[in-house]
Amino acid sequence: MWWCKHCKIVCANEEVLNDGSHEKCGTKEVERRNLKQWLMRIPLYGDRLLKGLDKLDWPQGVKDMQKNWIGKSFGAEVDFAIADANGKPTEKKLRVYTTRCDTLFGATYMVVAPEHAMVPELTTAEQKAAVEEYVHAAALKSDLDRTELAKEKTGVFTGSYAVNPLTGTKIPVWVADYVLTGYGTGAIMAVPAHDTRDFDFAKKFNLPVICIMEPDASCPEDVKPLVLKGEACWAADGTYINSENATLCLNGLNKKQGIAKVIEWLEANKIGKATVNYKLRDWLFSRQRYWGEPFPIIHWEDGEISTVDDAELPVLLPELKDYKPGDGGQSPLANATEWLQVTDKNGRKGIRETNTMPQWAGSCWYYLRYIDACNGDAFLAKELEKYWMPVDLYVGGAEHAVLHLLYSRFWHKVLFDLGLVSTDEPFQKLFNQGMILAFAYEDAAGSKVPTDEVEEKNGKFFKKGTDIELKQIVAKMSKSLKNVVNPDDVVRDYGADSLRLYEMFMGPLDAVKPWQTKGIEGMNRFLGRAWRSVVGDSDEAPVFVDETAPEAIEKVMHQTVIKVTSDIENMSFNTAISQLMIFNNEMMKMDKRYREPCETFVKLLHPFAPHIAEEMWSILGHNESLTNVAWPEADHSKAVENTVEVVFQVNGKVRAKASVAKDMDKAALEKLAMENDRMKEFMNGKTVVKSIVVPGKLVNIVVK
């Protein structure tokens, strides 16, 4: 496990940053330690987590990230016998997992991870000092440093050898940190001729490279001879060569055929078997902190481990004077003597589990507790769960793809298996919102300065009260960059509704958008215009008339109902607000305050600016909240244009235009064109040959 010496706690892999520092305290005092911890066996759900993605309406990118994180692969586990001093196989076995068991004939050495349990027994006395030093150094590196970021392969020979089960050849066993203990068995067979990582390692340490696959036609002609001589690596497909023993021959076969034949041979000889593996690791679920849910577990003096009775739940944290963890990994709860020690009804003594759960214990299922938060008898009433679940829409960032969103799915499936929820997936639709960008400021040393400590002078930026000039940069709004805009300040200056409108009007919900506080002023002005169009700007109570509004107002009203309804469904909030602005502009032209358009506008505004909308609704004479009022319905026939512009032509040239009813027939259109003064000028003294009439578009009079 990762252990932070500064915090004196176990860290999850996700809590150790790429530079090897602990995200909680920022120090690099983290190392690997072997500790007994509680883990969730999430790999057992790997297949179901993969298959469940097929029925979810989620962004494909998030699905792909989860699939890659789960990392399902098909391969084989193979046992390599450890050789004795004479190179003969012993009963001691080293098991590897490989997706390319077909390349076993080319395995020239083996590698175990520094944390592998067999490292001590594989290490000879002559190599002990070197191996221990290497293992300690590897414990200080993150997984990323050991794999993707590693510029150069490192390793040390254990002094032991294994026997290749297909060739009978004695091959050396090395310790190297490019192998991780969390994937497969933590040990690999190295085939340097056909794996780039193994090839780089073999070249550095002068280990054999044996080509057992002749490259296919995709291999460049100048590279192929080098591959065959073991001077270059070929990781793509080809045809087997040098792959034959007394009972197995792969020569001439392709990769698919070779894998099937080797697995069959391994299983027949009880040396290995076909295996499905996952990159997904057991989920570390315990911490040595005080602030966390205690595990409801008791360790009894006779060795039994049991859960506490339901009647004793929840297990509450005891009060402590000292909240610091112990240097050896003990939780602060180990000091709570009275709380720690328990006795059952038969006098048997035991102690409580002293590790606590991480924040995941609540964040994985919070959405369920929201449904029935005040229930003191159960975590959730079944009838309420069936009514509300699954969540129809989850709006969240893609940064949660392989953490919260994956772990919640696992947690939910466990609850489903226990019969506590009715669905096996929690979130049906996922929408990733875009990030908000904002100006950040840094001094010459690169230190960030909070935005509220910055002032502008003559187009330059300075730390308030000083002559220290700052550099303005655009970055993601975050606490670490000290460029978060406090919403309380915005609400104080402009009101909550202006803030809400601005956030939704900035652009498409899934787009990356820059924050401009000045933009809130525009939303504030729009709300002012909305107030004036409905309520007015005098102290007198507005008078609303129940007459039918003018056709132009009615048309825009019904268009707005259609547009806003559709945009909310599609989460296109910015265009919905734009349409409300168009509607409001038309309302400001009204000679009277017609009740229907005023009420419809307020209903449509309510989801975006609820406070001012509720106030206007009250002024319109209603006592109930808008929350309980039905959403307006549109009359589509009134939302369409009833007039259309047609052109009048003489001999194909446009001479006039007119606005006419959309359903005006040919005869009426022709008569209107003939009577048009402008048309008469061009037809005067000429004979009409024919008339071409296209309803809704044009009238062309042909003359000579």
In short:
With 704 residues, the chain is α+β, with helices and mostly antiparallel strands. It has 23 helices and 32 strands.
Write the layout of secondary structure elements.
Elements: E1 2-4, E2 9-11, E3 30-32, E4 39-40, H1 46-52, H2 60-70, E5 73-83, E6 89-98, E7 109-112, H3 119-122, H4 128-138, H5 143-146, E8 156-163, E9 170-175, E10 187-190, H6 196-204, E11 213-215, H7 224-228, E12 238-240, H8 255-268, E13 272-277, E14 283-284, E15 297-300, E16 305-307, H9 337-340, E17 341-343, E18 349-352, H10 360-363, H11 366-371, H12 382-388, E19 391-395, H13 404-417, E20 427-431, E21 436-442, E22 448-449, E23 454-457, E24 460-463, E25 469-476, H14 487-494, H15 496-505, E26 513-514, H16 519-534, E27 544-545, H17 551-569, H18 573-587, E28 593-594, H19 595-605, H20 610-619, H21 636-639, E29 643-650, E30 653-661, H22 666-674, H23 677-683, E31 688-694, E32 698-703
Describe the protein in words:
With 704 residues, the protein is α+β, with helices and mostly antiparallel strands. It has five domains: 1-36, no CATH class; 74-277, Isoleucyl-tRNA Synthetase, domain 2; 288-354, no CATH class; 513-638, Isoleucyl-tRNA Synthetase, Domain 1 (Orthogonal Bundle), CATH 1.10.730.10; 642-703, Ubiquitin-like (UB roll). The chain contains 23 helices and 32 strands. A hairpin with a 2-residue loop joins β23 and β24. α14 packs across α15 (496-505), α17 (551-569) packs antiparallel against α18 (573-587) and α17 packs parallel to α19 (595-605).
